[in-house]
Each structure stands twice: as structure tokens, then as C-alpha cells.
Amino acid sequence: MEKKNFTVSVYTENNIGLLSRIAAIFLKRHINIESITASKSEVNGVMRFIIVVNVTEEKVIKIVGQIEKQIEVIKAFYHTDEELIYQETALYKIRSADFVEDLNIQDFIKETNARIVTVTPKFFVIEKTGKRQETENLYEKLKPYGLMQFVRSGTIAVSKNEMQISEILEKFNTNTVS
Amino acid sequence: MEVKTANFEKKTIHSTTTVSGAEAVIKCLLEEGIDTIYGYPGGAIMPVYDELYKYQDKLHHVLTRHEQGATHAAQGYARVTGKVGVAIATSGPGATNLITGIADAQIDSTPLICITGQVGSHLLGSDAFQEIDIVGISTPITKWNYQITKASEIPEVFAKAFYIARSGRPGPVLIDITKDAQFASMDFSYKKCSGIRSYTPFPEVNLLAVQRAAEAMNQAKKPLIVFGQGVILGEAEALFKQVVEKSGIPAAWTILGLSALETKHPLNVGMVGMHGNYGPNMLTNECDVLIAIGMRFDDRVTGNLEQYAKQATVIHFEIDPAEINKNVKADIPVLGNVKETLQLLLEFLKPNEHTAWHQEFKDYYAKEYDKVIKHELNASEGELKMAEVIDEINTCFKGDAIIVSDVGQHQMVACRYAKFNSSRSNVTSGGLGTMGFALPAALGAKMGCPDREVVAIIGDGGYQMTIQELGTIFQTKSAVKIVLLNNGFLGMVRQWQQMFFERRYASTELVNPDFITIAKGYHIKTNQVTERSQLKDAVRDMFEANEPYFLEVKVEKEENVFPMIPTGAAVSEIRLE
What we know:
The complex is a heterodimer of chains A (about 180) and B (about 575).
Chain A: E1 4-13, H1 18-28, E2 33-40, E3 46-55, H2 57-69, E4 73-79, E5 84-95, H3 96-101, H4 103-111, E6 115-119, E7 123-130, H5 132-142, E8 149-152, E9 156-159, H6 165-177
Antiparallel strand pairs in A: 1-3, 1-4, 2-3, 5-7, 5-8, 5-9, 6-7
Chain B: E1 17-20, H1 21-31, E2 36-39, H2 46-54, E3 60-63, H3 67-81, E4 85-89, H4 93-96, H5 99-107, E5 112-118, H6 134-138, E6 144-148, H7 154-166, E7 172-178, H8 179-183, E8 185-188, H9 207-219, E9 223-227, H10 230-233, H11 237-247, E10 251-253, E11 268-271, H12 278-284, E12 289-293, H13 299-302, E13 313-318, E14 332-335, H14 338-348, H15 355-377, H16 386-397, E15 402-405, H17 409-417, E16 426-428, H18 438-448, E17 454-459, H19 460-463, H20 470-476, E18 481-486, H21 491-500, H22 515-521, E19 525-529, H23 532-544, E20 549-554
């Protein structure tokens, strides 16, 4: 079975140590995490981790099973790129002198729909949100001018299908009250 | 499906009393019905020990001689009683010494609560004296863990911990409590946990899956059941027996499934796996339907997965969804508590006998008897064989004893030859293979079942890993019968060196102390067997003793355990010599 990128979405309670518990599952199986983000989710008090890994589907199924087994994990899913709307954000810090003197840079920004977020006499900060290849392209274009700093976020993604977390939690509440 | 009742339902009024966090810990244990705990004191857990002093008439604390012993004793207690075992230790080294036992409980699904003291919360992260990140260290080997920094958290966290440890697939939970939380006062009221929204102890049963399983079992010509500890943990032994008897399907066990079905049952066809019986291993690769019940296809059971039961339709009765398709692809997965699924299954099963198929197991047994068993049980000359000792124990104890084995050759021999009449009678470290497990586990087992005989079968290697627990056995006057099978070697490793490393016996021959003198030093009654002729009387004498007893038996130095599936080989490539 061939390896490809899978995005694992994990809905959890908001507790100390859960990141480490989830990360340990990958560590135990010698799997490198390509990117990871954690934030609040659409459900009040519920956290959402988005973890991208490059593995076989057989492996990702097993990982999701192990993650879901953790007490404070409400539900875990895995998706392929086709099943998701996903984005990354990158920040590029460049010298103001380069920006002002080289019109190419301004063209790059226009072409790629990047955005200038900060302007100071010494540096500009440009932000680009998109797929990996898009932020990568802009990186390649700006690199010759000497990037002062570059950083890219982990993938964030929403699935095309419903996740039904609220339903799962609602079901528990119904069961406990009845 | 078990209905999760009342988590935050109808707030009943609970009377509250103001107590210290340390006292709250004791009260939580009492609320959960705990009467015995195993542990070792130290700085960061002293407030709790101070309360133990006050509560000693209600809560029996057993001072082991090492924290690892506390975990194994708690495990032994849990394995024979089905209740949650509790171990307690201080911060730092006290906490890290628990790790082996916690890992063992995790892989063998044993309900265990470990309580550790922690430095004051203002010192967390300062590398204080005896500070260790035990929550971080224990994360991959606990079902759940939590650090308490406020006394007010104690009742809820303990209630949750006990619920998690004992429900669903059981496992170890660690609770770390900072010293200031032990000292602080709080209003105590206790309410048992009955559900956690992010945790489903029992997956929902799919009736259709049960029906499909029954259909496959009914149509099978050569079905084989392999059962594991799930039958015991699910308290489904009686149901399981009905399933076996109604279907007439031969049933083989994993090392942790041992004793769930009595040894003498005509459909009990023995052990699967690396040193299991010839028939069930060979026929795993000939059966048409393989019914796995409460087992997880450990590599020691399956051998080479590429050649494991490929011809068979695999049915997997399992509580843990993550175990389905983990190692062996299940054609018919049946999720749920076996107590529920087997009950449903029973109704759909058609009575059958499979006489011809059963004969194949008997034929293989005859071959194994001829090549292996006969020579191990009936030797009349040469050094004593380990199996002879187990057989003599069978004769005396008549299958009623709890047998606690350590890890290595003697463990395989004990499991192969010991006879059991009732469930929860085999206590051994299966998944982790923890040498040093048996002596403290036997102590815990004896305390859990004081009216039963407990025989610990231990090799001379593992014995010396936790030998200090003789002190605990002596102090508690626990009438554990300790049988040391002394061959002067780390026998299992030596066997592998002989078979796979051209007899290069690197660091496997032991220079041993005088074990009799050591046991005598702890005022434990001793006996030694060096000749075959002494064995019968010695085992009888041990059986009749009403006190701790140490029996050393000098056995053949370079005996090998057979049958054996070499690593990487198929189960059907099992060797008899």
C-alpha cells in the first residue's frame, strides 16, 4: 500500500497533557508528524487537533484507533486531501529596501494574492494563505532577495463531510439523563 | 449496551466534611471499597501516610520492600479478585520504580490505581529534590493519568480514575498529587463516576455481526476457538463454556486466557503460541473458521503473520475497537463485552460435535506426548525436569491452587502442565514478560484470596529481581508457597543461545547464593530437593504447611522447552525437538 498524506482530525477535551498523549502514539510507531495544530473547535470547550502524516492508509486507520482509545479523545477521523478544504499560512519578512527597490517583489505579491501585514522603515511582513505549493512558490520567489525570516503554520482543515461531534456529545447527555 | 447512568444526574445531597487532601485520598479509597493497598513511603507522600496511620483499622497498608513490588502485588491482588489493585509511592525514584508494574498492567489489561506524591506545586518545574515528571513518563503506559495540584480536585479525580481503571478494557491509572494539595483542606463529598462523555467502555453490539459469526460457526467443518483474558475480564467464563459445549468447537487458550476453561474439559485443547501445544498450533493453519474471543493476536501467539490462518474465516470477539485488524484481519469483527456478545451468540448456535475434527487434536496430542510430554513427566533417571515438579504440584493441590509464574522457561512449563479447576487461577506476566513479577504478585494474590492456596513458580533469575519481597511475605505472614526451579541459568535466553547463537552462553550462567539461607534469614520455612526421590514428600510437606514456605528444586541445567515456534516461523512450523 502506498504512502500518502492523511490529515487526522482529533476532537478532545481541553486537558493538560493530551498533546503529549497523542504525540506518544506516533512516537511509539516511529511515525514522523508532518504538521500539527491545536485550537478550539466549533463545539464549546472541545479542542481540535489537526495532524498531517505521510503513511499508508492501513497505518492511519490503526493510528486513529489508538488515538480514539484515549480517554479524553471524543472522536478522531482521518481524511485524504480530496475530502478536505485545507490551508496553511506563511509569513515572510523582507527588508524594506529590497521591497521598495525591486518592483518584482511587488508583482509577486499581486500575482499570488499575498497580503502585506506590516510596514516599517526596516522591514515588511507579507502573509500568504493557501495550499503548501502556493506558499512554497512565493518562498522560492522571495528567497533570492534574502528573506530575513520565514515561517509556515501547520495545515488547518475542515472536512467536506460532517463530523457530528455535537451529536456524539448530545447522545452522551441523553443517555446519562435518561 | 450498558446504559451509562447518572453522571451529573439528580444532585443528591452529599454531606460534606472538611478534611485535608491527604485524608480525602484515604476516604476516596474507602468509598471505592478498597481495603488493602501496597506501597512505600517517602517525603512527598508523607501527609497521606500520616492519614494511613489514623485509618489503619480500615485500610491495610502493606509495606513492600521496593515500589516495583507494590505494583506487582497490587496486580496479583487484582488478577485473582477482579477488583482494582492500588499501589502508592513517593515522588521521584518512588514514582519511577512503579513504571515496570504500570507497563505490565497496561499490556495485560489489569485494573490498577497508582498514587504518587509530588513536590509542592510552587516547585513544579524547578528540578526540586525528588521531582520527576511522572505524568509525562507514565503517559504512554497508562489508560489515564492526572496530576492533582488542588485538594478540591481529589474526589472527582479518584472517582474518575477508579471508573476508568475497572470499566471496559481495564488498565492502569496514575494519579500524581502535589504535597501542598495533600496538606490543603477541602470540603469532602464523594460521588462515584458512572460515565465520561469522551469515553465509551463498551462498544455498541451489532446484532448482525453476532448472527454472521454464528452462521459461520454453524457452517464450519473445522472450527477452532482461541480464547484470551477477555473471557475472564468480562466475567463470561460460564457463558463461554456453554458456547464451547453447544458448538462442540475445540477451544485453545492464550497464556492469559489460561484457567478460564478448566484444564480437564474435553474441549480444552491446550495452549497456542510459541511454546504452546502441537495440535492447536498446527491446526490453526488448517481450521476453516478461527474464532478469537477476548484475545489480541500477540506475536507470540501468531508467529509469522503472513502465514497465520490464511485459509480461515476469522471471527474476532473483542471489546477494544483498536484491536480489530491490528495484527490479523478479522472477516467478522464482533465488538462488545463478551458477556453480552456470547450470550447473543449462544442463541444462534446450532449444537454440533465435530468428532472427526476433534480427533485430529487428539492425534497431534499423541505425537506431542510421545516426543515431549512423556519424557518430561516420566523420566526415571538424570536430573529433575521442571514438568515433574509441576506435575507433583498438580497431584497435591489437585488443580485448586492459584499458580503464579514468573517469566522464562519455568513459566512456559508451568502454563503447559499446571492444571486448573477454576478461573482467575493463573497469574503471570504475559505481554510484558516481566521477570521478578511472581514473588510480589503471589503475595498480592494470597492477600486477595486468603482462603486459596497460592503457589509461586519462579526461576533462579527472576527470583533475584524481587527477592527482597521475602521480607514482605515474612512480615505479613502470607502463606505463599514459593517453588524455586533452580537450573543455574537464565534458561530461556540460554535456550535461544543454544538454538540460534551457536551455544555462545553470554552472561546466562548464574552464580547463585545459598537460597535456603536467604529464606531462613527471613524466618521462612524451607526445604530443598536435589534428588527425584525427595520430590513427592517435599511437595506434600509444602502443601500441608500453613505458613510461608520456600521450596528449592534443583532441576536439569540445560533443559529446553518444546514444542517451539522459532521467531519468524509459521505456527505450523512448530518444532517438537
